[in-house]
Design goal:
This protein is an alpha/beta fold. It contains eleven helices and eight strands. α7 packs across α8. The radius of gyration is 17 Å and the shape is globular. The structure holds phosphoenolpyruvate (PEP). Phosphoenolpyruvate binds next to β8.
Length: 259
């Protein structure tokens, strides 16, 4: 039985003090709910500047910290970049890859996503690979084609061994930060397609074990029905993860559903 994953992507938000207040508050909340954390995994993706702060807080708490991006290169003359080895040296356990904002504003291609996944796996960091279609692609009935192409690109040359840990996030681009959410049926359809592809590319166990999160304007008001779908194992949340009360409410919903 997969557990729920509730992940907060802060994007480029929060000052150091705001980050400190948030993590301290949420750590206390998770400590109070520790008995449920076998069923619900909480991940936070702060800006990389705050990884040390967040990791220190959550050392003794059941919250896992991840980076929002990583370089596709190993090391060297890449000003401004952060390598997977550096993230590993900061005890970072997860990293988002291929977020639609990186694809759109930083021209990240499937090949770059694949190179990043390889760097992360080499450094024992679990990638959360984000995929999703644009509004135009959905209107042109190209959703499946786009999803399969992104999957194929991201997993090129990737093999699983017992330590390989990869999550996926289906994030329709038209639903990110727009207030528009995919209907639970729309999301479930794509999640099922993804799981089927993973089964065919790898095997049934890997596809059954792989957490597939939904992202795109998830909030306390709509998370329950999304999590109730068979192949939705959690949520990658942007805007609503910035407010502690909303983030706590969504974790609470996941806990309640597992009871
Ligand atoms: C995201 O950043 O991955 C995201 C889904 O954002 P939002 O929840 O704000 O749509």
């Amino acid at each position: 039985m997969r557990r729920y994953v509730i992940a907060g992507n802060w994007k480029m938000n929060k000052t150091f003090t705001e980050a400190d207040d948030f993590i301290s508050d949420i750590s206390e909340f998770i400590d109070d709910n520790e008995e449920f954390m076998d069923d619900v995994e909480v991940l936070i993706f702060p800006p990389s500047l705050y990884l040390e702060l967040a990791t220190d807080y959550t050392d003794s708490t059941e919250i896992f910290i991840g980076a929002q991006d990583v370089s596709s290169h190993e090391s060297g003359a890449y000003t401004g970049e952060i390598s997977a080895e550096m993230l590993n040296s900061m005890e970072t356990l997860f990293c988002l890859v291929g977020h639609s904002e990186r694809r759109k504003y930083h021209y990240e291609t499937d090949e770059m996503v694949n190179a990043k996944v390889k760097q992360l796996l080499k450094n024992s960091i679990s990638p959360i690979i984000c995929i999703g279609e644009t509004e135009k692609e959905r209107a042109e009935n190209k959703t499946d084609e786009v999803i399969l192409k992104q999957l194929k690109g991201a997993f090129e040359g990737i093999d699983f061994d017992e330590d390989t840990d990869i999550y996926l996030a289906y994030e329709p681009v038209w639903a990110i930060g727009t207030g528009k959410t995919a209907t639970p049926q729309m999301a479930q359809e794509v999640h099922a397609l993804i799981r089927k592809w993973i089964k065919e590319r790898f095997n049934e166990k890997i596809s059954n074990d792989m957490p597939i999160l939904y992202g795109g304007s998830v909030k306390p008001e709509n998370i329950k029905i999304l999590l109730e779908q068979e192949d939705i194992d959690g949520a990658l949340i942007g805007g609503a993860s910035l407010i502690t009360e909303k983030f706590k409410a969504m974790i609470t919903t996941a806990i309640e559903l597992k009871k």
